[in-house]
Specification:
The complex is a heterotrimer. Chain A is α/β, with parallel strands linked by helices. In chain A, 46% of the residues lie in helices and 19% in strands. In chain A, the strands form two sheets. Chain A has a six-stranded mixed sheet with strand order 2-1-3-10-4-11, with helices on both faces. In chain A, strands 7-6-8-5-9 form a five-stranded mixed sheet, with helices on both faces. In chain A, helix 2 links the parallel strand 1 and strand 2. In chain A, helix 2 crosses helix 12 and helix 7 packs across helix 14. The N terminus of chain A is likely disordered. Chain C has five helices and no strands. The longest helix of chain C is centred in the N-terminal third of the chain and has 30 residues. The chains are: A alpha/beta, B mainly alpha, C mainly alpha. Chains in contact: A-B, A-C, B-C. Chains B and C meet through helix 3, helix 10, strand 2, helix 12 and helix 19 of B and helix 2, helix 3, helix 4 and helix 5 of C.
């Protein structure tokens, strides 16, 4: 090979790189949000609900705005850090109530999202947060549990500490403190990890009740009672109105009608005046200094996407409840939601 | 059964084969793993539909796990964490010029492991799932402890080896005591200013490729990158001296390792890397002629590779019969099911019999395709060592960077981890500590902590480790045997050395 | 006796400090082992060094300083510049692409012992093709985020 051919090779490569660059730039749409956008999520799992829901939304947005969007499951602490560093709008975040519950429970790595970030629109609800007991458990209803604890019986609940999995437990403890003051200490948390770990605590008889989800535990509730693994739903923390919106067939072979048995007003967890409910809602988080125009653009794009109605079908297929609220509304709504839970957590401390 | 045949079309097989091919490539690139291959292709499955999507993903899974053997043998860098024990014997063989032979042994062992675990999965999934839930934190801790005993038997100097292993465990504890494992989420073993970087600790994959890949390059650089080629006097052609005769008398090893792999894969939470480590330990302890292991013995390769491919079937057992993933790759497979609105759980197999049979067909087919692709491509793959070092090494660094950056979906600190552990790996070897025990300690340390602390939290006494269940007693027996074995081995070799010195 | 043993074995872990429980055990183990190593391995080794039978690791060895420290410096520059350049083109992978090209070429040059024209050209082509290929397949085809 002679010298000129190096230049030729070099030249061609530079040209090719230039073309690739050019084409990427040409892809960018007219709006303030342009180029390649990365959506980081607060979960490290690409098999979980956060990833699934985020990719439904990101795909729809990318198509609607004609930009590139990629969901990366980097986990909460990294996701917040990425968001901190990028005010340009190339990094967006999608997460759920864990983002402020982590802060309320004082988990390291969480700060007050309402002060530190701009809250974006909500997109969907995962209505599946549930509490289950073994099928042969003496507790037939959640009231039985509250009664038993009130009578001094110790009930152990397997949860993952510091967030979504704990909030229902805290609310239950709070309700017991209201109805049977002083007895709430008999409701004991068994701190454990993944869903597998929580189930295992039940199989090992190390817990009397576990936190779970409709999605992950529904099949267990249909096992025959003599099966060691069989479970029974006691309580879904979702609002009645949320489950009402679920597909009529429900999930697996548990219909919406059956699921409604486990939400208020059939199951009551009091907070004093009102009943406690908890919906796990997914929403966007933005860097505080990000251009307001981008906030508006995403709000508007999502409004249009939800008006078309296709995304709702996709979400419902995956057992998510569509729940679009533009960013202003979402921020107010979530902040008041947080203050309710803040009261519960301070009450039981 | 006829319905199933109608679901099988040429696309199904093509996708499984394509998956195996792409998986092998991912696995063969240092730093890219089976998990990553499955993760990046997951979005494609939505368009493909469930059955075709699963064919592709299972192909990727099998291919990805197998591909890890290539850099492990040829470059001494485990392509996936579960091929770490493959480096112990594979690389010494490659250095002796037997790279091609080593790879062929690995491929055959992989096929056997894959098929045995597929059969076990097919016949016994529900029964085994039932058995696997007998393993609580206590039993899982004992399994990890058993795997850790390999440290004693594989180190050159037992004291130094154990110290290296404990150092590895210590390194794995840096960061938070993770909430997702049920910990309290507090950080430890670091300074506050490091928290933004080390919050989640060091990730396994960058540590692994840093300590094996980057450290090797640093050691070479120190020597001046002398010889142009990475391998010495390689013999090519005629299968590189491979014949199936090498497997004579090794059936017990293959079957035992495959069962260990399947079994470890089946236990949720006990990571895949523990499978090959355990199989390797058991071969070392139980075989009559294990003295060559670690210096280039094919039996080590057989143990390691049959066990890590057997993981595939094993990890699918809890996924399909409990809805719980057996390892990180099957955790992503769950996404493929939920994307299609299908639940996995204890009723998956009875309610989705068609899908279940199709998955089995895809799994077996992917294993066979993997075998033929690899077995005949090895001749060419093994030539990697003929690439001059001044070309090869920069490429290795680049691919390590890509792998490290991509493993947690784009975190720059993971790339710096490469360098940190590259330098650490260099220093460790210089001061005479041992790398393999350190890495095994690192891999198993996190799990050891969670299972140990959680057991004590639940039961409040150390005696629970002995009295929990008959399974625990059996595991203690194995641990005691393993320790006793390594002690006698080291005494014997010391006596031998003394004899040689005096004569 | 029985109760004495069981109280010796019983342990209660406070959840708030449970993150320190296991590291504590490991620290003791490490300290103990380190002491043993000092006595049985390091001390005899140092004696041997003093007698001139052995040399100290790293310090006492000859090394190719240029290539060793060159490698370290290049890798540090590579990692650092990758994210700096990448920051100009968010999430396109160009940081990786362009900096890799430079890195590959420089590292190849450094590792060559004789720089013939042929070798330099091979290195240059490799430096252009390898990162482009990796970038195209991973960032474009598989949509993996690169710096």
């Amino acid at each position: 090979m002679s010298m000129p051919s190096i230049y030729k090779t070099l030249g061609t490569s530079v040209l090719m790189a230039g073309m690739a660059f050019g084409s990427a730039a040409a892809l960018a749409a007219d709006g303030p949000l342009r180029g390649n956008v990365r959506v980081v999520i607060g979960s490290t799992s690409t098999g979980g609900d956060t990833y699934q829901n985020s990719s439904i939304v990101a795909d729809a947005l990318a198509e609607h705005l004609d930009i590139n969007m990629k969901v990366d499951a980097v986990g909460a602490s990294s996701a917040f850090r990425f968001l901190d560093r990028d005010p340009r709008g190339n990094t967006l975040m999608i997460f759920h109530d864990q983002s402020y519950l982590g802060y309320l429970y004082g988990v390291e790595g969480y700060e007050n999202i309402f002060e530190k970030y701009t809250i974006g629109p909500t997109v969907a609800i995962n209505p599946g947060n549930a509490y289950l007991v073994p099928k042969d458990s003496p507790y037939q209803t959640l009231d039985d549990v509250i009664e038993a604890v009130g009578n001094g019986e110790e009930v152990r609940v397997a949860i993952q500490p510091g967030g979504v999995s704990e909030i229902g437990f805290s609310a239950l403890k709070n309700a017991i403190a209201i109805e049977h003051p002083g007895m709430e200490e008999n409701l004991v948390a068994v701190n454990t990890g993944s869903q597998a770990d929580k189930n295992q605590q039940l199989f090992d008889d190390q817990a009397d009740m576990i936190n779970g989800t409709v999605q992950a535990n529904e099949q267990y509730t249909r096992l025959p009672e003599d099966d060691q693994k069989a479970m029974r739903f006691l309580w879904l923390t979702a609002r009645n109105s949320t489950i009402e919106q679920a597909p009529e067939d429900g999930l697996g072979q548990t219909t919406r009608e059956q699921l409604l048995q486990y939400v208020e007003p059939n199951v009551n967890v009091t907070m004093g005046d009102d009943n406690f409910t908890f919906d796990k809602e997914f929403f966007f988080l933005y860097n505080k200094d990000m251009d307001q125009a981008i906030v508006n653009q995403i709000d508007q794009a999502l409004a249009e996407i939800y008006a078309e109605g296709e995304i709702q079908e996709t979400q419902k297929n995956a057992f998510f409840i569509p729940n679009f609220k533009p960013s202003d509304e979402a921020a107010d709504y979530l902040e008041s939601k947080m203050s309710v839970y803040e009261d519960i957590i301070t009450n039981i401390q | 059964m006829l319905d199933i045949l109608s679901l099988l079309d040429i696309t199904f097989f093509l996708l499984a084969a394509l998956g195996a091919l792409v998986g092998i490539i991912f696995g063969a690139i240092p730093g890219m793993t089976a998990t990553m291959a499955v993760a990046v292709c997951l979005p494609l499955t939505y368009a493909l539909g469930l059955n075709h999507g699963l064919a592709l993903l299972l192909g990727l899974y099998v291919g990805g796990i197998s591909g890890g053997m290539v850099p492990a043998v040829l470059l001494n860098i485990p392509g996936t964490p579960s091929s770490i024990t493959t480096t112990f014997d594979g690389f010494p063989m490659a250095q002796k010029g037997e790279g091609e032979r080593a790879l062929r042994v690995c491929v055959v062992a992989s096929l056997i492991g894959g098929l045995i675990s597929a059969i076990v999965l097919f016949l016994f999934a529900p029964v085994l799932a039932e058995f696997s839930i007998k393993f609580s934190y206590v039993e899982k801790f004992l399994i990890i402890l058993l795997a850790l005993t390999v440290i004693a038997s594989m180190s050159r100097n037992m004291l130094v080896g154990i110290f290296s292993g404990v150092l590895g465990i210590w390194l794995s504890l840096i960061g938070t005591y993770s909430i997702s494992d049920g910990g309290n989420g507090h950080t430890r073993l670091m300074f506050d200013f490091l928290e933004p970087y080390l919050f989640e600790g060091f990730s396994l994959l960058p540590v692994l490729i840093g300590i094996f890949g980057i450290a090797t390059i640093l050691l070479e650089a120190e020597e001046g990158v002398k010889s142009g080629l990475a391998g010495k006097n390689i013999e090519f052609g005629k299968g590189g001296g491979f014949s199936f005769g090498i497997f004579k008398g090794r059936l017990t090893n293959l079957v035992r390792s495959s069962f260990i792999g399947t079994f470890v894969g089946m236990l949720p939470g006990v990571g895949g890397s523990a499978a090959s480590v355990l199989a390797y330990t058991q071969e070392k302890n139980l075989s009559r002629d294990s003295s060559e292991m670690g210096k280039g013995a094919p039996q080590g390769l057989m143990a390691s590779e049959s066990a890590n491919n057997a993981l595939t079937g094993g990890a699918l057992i809890p996924l399909l019969s409990l809805g719980i993933p057996g390892d990180s790759t099957t955790a992503i497979l769950i996404g493929a099911f939920t994307l299609q609105g299908i639940q996995v759980g204890p009723l998956f197999i009875p309610e989705n019999a068609d899908t279940w049979y199709l998955m089995m067909i895809a799994l077996v087919f992917a294993n066979v395709v993997m075998f033929f692709l690899m077995f005949y491509a090895i001749k060419h793959i093994a030539k990697v060592v003929l690439v001059p070092k001044y070309i090869l090494y920069p490429i290795i660094v680049m691919m390590c960077v890509v792998g490290a950056y991509a493993i947690n979906y784009g975190i720059m600190f993971d790339v710096w981890t490469l360098l940190i552990f590259g330098v650490l790996g260099y220093l460790i070897q210089k001061v005479g500590l041992e790398v393999a025990p350190l890495i095994i300690g690192f891999i198993l340390g996190g799990q050891a902590e969670v299972y140990f602390v959680k057991s004590l939290e639940s039961f409040g006494t150390y005696s629970i480790f002995f009295t929990k269940s008959p399974i625990a007693v059996v595991l203690w027996g194995l641990i005691a045997a393993s320790v006793a074995f390594s002690v006698t081995m080291s005494l014997k070799s010391r006596a031998k050395r003394r004899l040689e010195a005096s004569s | 006796m029985e109760s004495g043993l069981s109280s010796l074995l019983s342990v209660s872990i406070d959840f708030e400090t449970s993150h320190l429980f296991f590291p504590h055990i490991i620290h003791w183990l490490m300290g103990g082992l380190f002491a043993l190593i000092l006595v049985f391995n390091v001390a005899p080794f140092l004696v041997a060094v003093r007698r001139g039978e052995r040399t100290l690791p790293i310090l006492g060895e000859s090394m190719d300083k240029f290539r060793f420290f060159g490698t370290l410096a290049l890798i540090v520059a590579y990692f650092y510049l990758m994210s700096v350049v990448g920051n100009f083109f968010p999430y396109t992978g160009y940081g990786f692409l362009f900096v890799s090209m430079a890195f590959l070429f420089l590292m190849s040059l450094m590792y060559m012992h004789t720089r013939t024209k042929r070798k330099v050209i091979t290195a240059a082509i490799n430096a252009l093709v390898a990162p482009s290929l990796a970038w195209f397949i991973l960032a474009k085809l598989f949509q993996i985020t690169l710096p």
